[in-house]
Amino acid sequence: MSKNLNARRLNMQALAAEGAALVEITPLPNMERLAQELHGLEPDSAINWRASAELRPRSGADDDVWLRLEAKASLPLTCQRCMAAVATAVEIDQWYRFVATEDIAMAEDDQSEEDLLVMEPQFDLLAVLEDELLMALPLVPMHETCPVSPVFSAGEAELASQEDAEPHPFAALAQLKKPK
Ligand SMILES: [Zn+2]
User: How far away, in angstroms, is 100 Cα from ligand 1 center?
Assistant: First the structure.
């Protein structure tokens, strides 16, 4: 799409009528809630995402507006074992249907496989994307194998190498304690 659209103020009805896809790259610092969850932030970090909207006819009513939102990102989270950054792949592929009011959304939510969104004349699509990314984050991010050893095992390793080089102090102590 060549027009310069603001993803925080979208006319979803018009987007769906056009049937075109919106392909965007949003810098991570523009998503403050998500940025807070990250282990530091590279200045050029960004989320690649794609939104395509379409109209689907509904008998006896106006066409429904449907939206497909896709995003892929590798986000630096904090490993809960070693506290270093762990690159975490996050993927979103979600369908939504727009409804007119919050009441309709509440009433129809249980029986709908797709997620429901309440239509607004200037729809904030980035907020929806950010919500989805936050929900897609693992509860306990962790390396499969941590790159650095935790502190306690580093200490053990040091002790082990000393053992090779010189007699263990406790071994000498044991010798002293031995009954004669
Ligand atoms: Zn780790």
Answer: 46
- Which structural domain, as residue segments, surrounds residue 179? 149-180
DSSP string of 37-83?
TSSS--TT-EEEEEEEEEEEEETTEEEEEEEEEEEEEEEEEE-TTT-
The pLDDT tens digits for 36-57 are: 999 987 778 899 999 999 999 9
| Structural contact between residues 44 and 76, judged by C-beta atoms closer than 8 angstroms | no
Give per-residue pLDDT as tens, 6-38: 899 999 999 999 988 999 999 998 999 999 999
**What residues have a C-beta under 5 A from ligand 1, the ion?**
79, 81-82, 143, 146
State whether 43 and 68 are in the same domain.
yes
Domain match, 28 and 102 both: yes
CA of 149 to the centre of ligand 1 (A): 9
